[in-house]
Amino acid sequence: MPSTFHYRLGLNQPAASPSAKRMAEFGAAIGAATGGRLTVDVYPESRLGPDPQMFAEVQAGKLEFFVSGATLGGIAPASALPMMPFAFDGLDPVFAALDGGLGDVIRGQLAKAGLHAFRRSMLNGFHHITTSVRAIAAVDDFKGLRIRSPGGELSADFFRTLGAEAGMVPFSGMYAALKAKTFDGQSDPLGVVQSLRLYEVQTHLSLTGHWWSGFTLLCNGDAWAALPRDIREIVEAEAEKAALAQRADVAAINETGAKTLEGLGMIVNTADSAGIRARLGDFYARWKAKFDAATWRQLETYAGGLAG
After folding, report:
1. How far apart are CA 169 and CA 158, in angstroms?
2. What is the pLDDT of residue 306?
3. Which of 105, 160, 177, 205 suits a disulfide with 182, CB 3.0-4.6 Å?
4. In the structure, what pLDDT confidence band is assigned to residue 308 with cuts at 50, 70 and 90?
5. Spatial CA neighbour of 126 closest among 273, 288, 292
6. Cα 142 from Cα 163, distance rounded (Å)
7. CATH node for 126-211+257-303
């Protein structure tokens, strides 16, 4: 009898989100294609715990698959680079970077940390600012605000540079934290604002497009190595199929997001993004100094020579 494997996959996204739906399809397709030799049970909505817990468990081998957001910087420093503010002009250069050379650097760092990262990243999108207190029209409007951010030193440094204070609560607790006024606002793509119903607890949507973020499907390295080669090939193929479909789903939602959210009562404005970027000279210099020249050049290859 061939060996059988029963793996779990955790993610923080709502069950009705494109990410959760495509991961459910991913799990079902693997079960069918392997004849049940590998089953993957998918748990959305942080049902296996908040992101830091799931990330620790996939590292420890207690969880086999995890869809990670901005939690990789501690073990894969280059994973912060796709979030560099105003680095990319659109989705095409983002995915050229992540499917290509910059992604290879990130995946190599993750492999050294014992994690297998699948080649195709999934889409979260370009971030904008929502607040309950005032619109962000110009850079000085950030002063004194408390912003819930995705976590990590890059986002904290970005908001500090603009005069705001960044903080973090798990994704699953963001709505409650904004409702309780623990934070004045938050940074996320338009699809997240819709899926978490943040328009119920935030008044203003300021279109900044200040950075991009996505999701990385990870597998514990030992769990990955334990699978026979033919099963790994099936998983790789289904992961690519799911990621490409998810990208298209989320891009469509984000494309119409501002109009949808305005219809739901949010006050929408377009921020002076050029003025925000002009405040970031020292920020870019600090972050460029954190990386070796070859890694920074990988970013510049796709970002048009960002920060010289």
Report:
1. 17
2. 67
3. 177
4. very low
5. 273
6. 6
7. 3.40.190.170
Statement: the pTM of the whole predicted model exceeds 0.90: yes
Token duo for residue 219: 């597998």
Phi, psi at residue 64, to the nearest 5°? -85, -45
**3-state SS record for 270-302:** ECCHHHHHHCCHHHHHHHHHCCCHHHHHHHHHH
Q: Do 5-81+89-124+213-255 and 126-211+257-303 have matching folds?
A: yes
Tokens of 29: 């397709």
Domain boundaries in the chain? 5-81+89-124+213-255, 126-211+257-303
For range 124-130, the mean pLDDT = 97
For the segment 165-181, what is each residue's pLDDT rounded down to a tens digit?
999 998 889 999 999 99
Domain 5-81+89-124+213-255 top-level CATH class: alpha beta
Give whole-number Cα distances, 84 to 180, 264, 302, in Å: 30, 30, 12
* Count of CA atoms in the C-beta half-sphere (13 A) of 40: 32
Distance CA 153, CA 98 (A): 21
Q: Is 236 exposed, middle or buried (0-12, 13-18, 19+ CB in 10 A)?
A: middle
Query: ∠125-274-163 over CA atoms, to 5°?
Result: 85
pLDDT (tens digit, 9 = 90+) per residue, 86-107?
999 999 999 999 999 999 999 9
Tokens representing residue 111 in the block: 């492999």
Q: Which two tokens stand for residue 116?
A: 């297998």
DSSP 203-227: -EEEE----EEEEEEEEEHHHHHHS
